Fold Thioredoxin.
Amino acid sequence: MDTATQTESLHIVCPQCDAVNRVPAMKLSHTPTCGKCHRELFAGKPVDLTSARFLKHIERSDLPVLVDFWAPWCGPCRQMAPFFEQAAMGLEPMYRVVKVNTEEAQDLAARYAIRSIPTLALFKGGREVARQPGAMDARGIMAWAQQNNPS
């Protein structure tokens, strides 16, 4: 991290209460907590997002947001789930890692034209910057996210 990056503050959406927090970039790895609910901003696991919460997390966060679009009936999705959890531990706090159940959030599946699941999508500044259909292991997920990060 260069000096300018270390002194800038980032907007981080709380995974519990959805409050937008300003966190100095250099303090991301120091277990920051939410100013509203006082819970940790990063738990090392994916955040389950509903349609109502999704846009706030991708539009208001300064971090890249890695999304797993999945469904409970999907075998490859269930196989990838523990790998996605492992990837979350390795990617946070430089990424927000989230899951969207396409059965419950059919509007998001339609809006983002999710044609197969699981599908990974990387968002930055509210827009999708990369997409990868199909199951991957934790190392593959992390490598794909880092390779496609536009920062």
Summary: The CA atoms of residues 83 and 145 lie 13 Å apart. The mean pLDDT is 94. The first strand starts at residue 9 and ends at 13.
